[in-house]
């Protein structure tokens, strides 16, 4: 394995980046552009001109504390922020992931990424391809790993990188991600081995996470493997697989989330907005997945296109066909909770999915957890779902099942019955009944805020449950937005719903 140490302050005022071989501690000043190394410094390798991060290999390491100068950079290969190191990216910086080297930025346990953008100057990670030619999976993605708990112990992060995450430090701090966009990530290194848009591995609650947008990810937009980090103001836009995927004992608290699907982009594994497991085998290993979400708006494929089911026909000839081995599929549920997950969802709205809720017992007993109140779904509005509930993955049928396989067609699904019995849950026939300003993401200037007479507004007693006692803003509306007013639009300024045609 090649290891590298950055010398001095990285990329300040256009300075060059240098790498040294492992085991050498160079204190000599940077020789500067165009200067040959001294004979005794043959180990120094010039690999950038002030606009490049990484050298294209899959084992480049950042060591020490370094601050980029505001500007535009190309990320090449797999770049690791190592234990004890810190990389600071200033507001307004653009980092383009290189396609040929499958670029990815990986923060290892004990490392920190300080990426503090602003509403007017977000930090953008995007494809290095020219506008009009960007596709899901153009580059790897962003991975943050820490030392908080998960229920598997030391875990290798999903997607191919070497990094192991996990520990017992739930207050662990991996840095700051604030006002950051990640676009066109998720290159599949092997079949079913994609990096997500943003992956969190055992990230602790000392980390600051807010105002993130992941667009056109070639796998999940966000995935959490264990950890305890909280987050607010997240956007998942036109992702390939799931929007919010929680696994391995994730226990964070999250509020104000928006997920919007392109009706013709879905994964062969079936795309859900929420997909939640305790672990792959559905065991009761602790800590259990007990994450709590509130004020979420999920915009599904129905209502955005006349024919949303035949994704393969659309993607084959479309601008967004990555031609990298990814397989297209179709959509399933707004919310799928399975494999003994105890995820809870409050004060939220989901529209336009084939299935509203799946509580799947194929592995583990998620239905028992729901019956005993270990997971809770309250004040969830479902609009224009083909069926309210299903108990079997990949069935799209509202029939009763206790094992996630065999169905009793004489009985309504447990998921449907459970949903109807919980406080504040409601089913509306049409998306129009929600009275949102303009919920179709395929039209210009979409606005997912409710109108003044929307049934989502003017609520009371939304935060009475003990699970909402701390970490949540006490608001009087269901979904991610208070109103359709620009003053209530937390998307304003820093998001981008047309990254394909943006000049970076």
Report on the structure:
This protein has 504 residues and is mainly β. The strands form six sheets. It has a 15-stranded parallel beta sheet that branches. Strands 4-7-10-13-19-21-23-25-27-29-31 form an eleven-stranded parallel beta sheet. The protein has a two-stranded antiparallel ribbon with strand order 1-2. It starts with 17 loop residues before the first strand and ends in a 54-residue tail after the last strand. The longest helix is centred in the C-terminal third of the chain and has 8 residues. It is built from three helices and 34 strands. 4% of the residues lie in helices and 30% in strands. The protein has two domains: 90 residues, no CATH class; 404 residues. The relative contact order is 0.09. It is globular, with a radius of gyration of 23 Å. Strand 17 and strand 18 form a beta hairpin.
In short:
The chain has 504 residues and is mainly β.
Report the helical percentage. under 10%
- Unreliable residue runs: 1-48
**SSE class:** mainly beta
How many runs of DSSP E, i.e. beta strands?
34
Summarize the biggest pleated sheet: 15 strands, parallel
The termini sit apart by: 34 Å
Rg for CA atoms: 23 Å
Report the sheet-strand fraction: 25-35%
């Amino acid at each position: 394995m090649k290891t590298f140490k950055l010398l001095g302050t990285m990329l300040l005022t256009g300075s060059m980046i240098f790498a040294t071989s492992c085991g050498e501690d160079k204190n000599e000043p940077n020789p500067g552009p165009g200067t040959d190394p001294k004979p005794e410094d043959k180990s120094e390798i010039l690999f950038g001109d002030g606009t490049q991060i990484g050298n294209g290999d899959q084992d480049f390491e950042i060591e020490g504390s370094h601050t980029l100068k505001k500007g535009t950079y190309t990320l090449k290969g797999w770049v690791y922020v190592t234990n004890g190191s810190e990389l600071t990216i200033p507001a307004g910086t653009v980092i383009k992931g290189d396609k040929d080297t499958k670029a990815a930025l990986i923060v290892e346990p004990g490392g920190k990424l300080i990426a503090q953008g602003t509403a007017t100057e977000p930090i953008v990670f995007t494809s290095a391809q020219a506008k009009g030619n960007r596709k899901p999976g153009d580059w790897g993605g962003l991975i943050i790993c820490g030392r908080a708990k998960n229920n598997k112990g030391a875990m290798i992060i999903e997607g191919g990188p070497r990094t192991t995450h996990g520990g017992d430090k739930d207050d662990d701090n991996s840095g700051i991600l604030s006002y950051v966009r990640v676009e066109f990530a998720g290159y599949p290194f092997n079949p079913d081995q994609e990096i997500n848009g943003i992956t969190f591995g055992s990230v602790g609650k000392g980390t600051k996470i807010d105002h993130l947008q992941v667009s056109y990810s070639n796998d999940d937009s966000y995935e959490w493997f264990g950890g305890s980090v909280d987050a607010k103001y997240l956007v998942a836009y036109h992702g390939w697989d799931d929007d919010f995927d929680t696994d391995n004992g994730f226990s964070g608290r999250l509020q104000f989330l928006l997920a919007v699907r392109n009706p013709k982009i879905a994964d062969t594994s079936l795309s859900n907005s929420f997909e939640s497991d305790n672990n792959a085998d559905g065991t009761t290993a602790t800590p259990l997945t007990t994450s709590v979400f509130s004020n979420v708006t999920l915009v599904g494929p129905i209502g955005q296109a006349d024919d949303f089911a035949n994704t393969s026909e659309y993607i084959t000839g479309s601008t967004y066909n990555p031609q990298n081995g990814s397989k297209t599929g179709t959509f399933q549920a707004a919310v799928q909770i399975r494999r003994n997950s105890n995820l809870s969802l409050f004060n939220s709205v989901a529209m336009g999915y084939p299935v509203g809720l799946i509580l799947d017992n194929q592995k583990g007993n998620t239905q028992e957890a729901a019956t005993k109140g270990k997971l809770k779904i309250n004040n969830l509005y479902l609009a224009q779902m083909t069926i309210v509930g299903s108990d079997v993955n990949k069935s799209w049928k509202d029939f009763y099942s206790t094992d996630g396989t065999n169905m009793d067609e004489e009985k309504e699904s447990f998921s449907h019955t459970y949903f109807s019995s919980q406080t504040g849950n409601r089913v509306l026939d049409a998306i129009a009944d929600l009275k949102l300003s303009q919920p179709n993401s395929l039209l210009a200037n979409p606005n997912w805020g409710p109108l003044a007479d929307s049934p989502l507004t003017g609520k009371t007693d939304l935060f009475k449950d003990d699970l909402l006692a701390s970490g949540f803003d006490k608001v009087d509306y269901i979904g991610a937005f208070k109103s359709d007013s620009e003053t209530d639009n937390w998307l304003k300024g820093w998001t981008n719903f047309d990254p394909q045609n943006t000049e970076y």
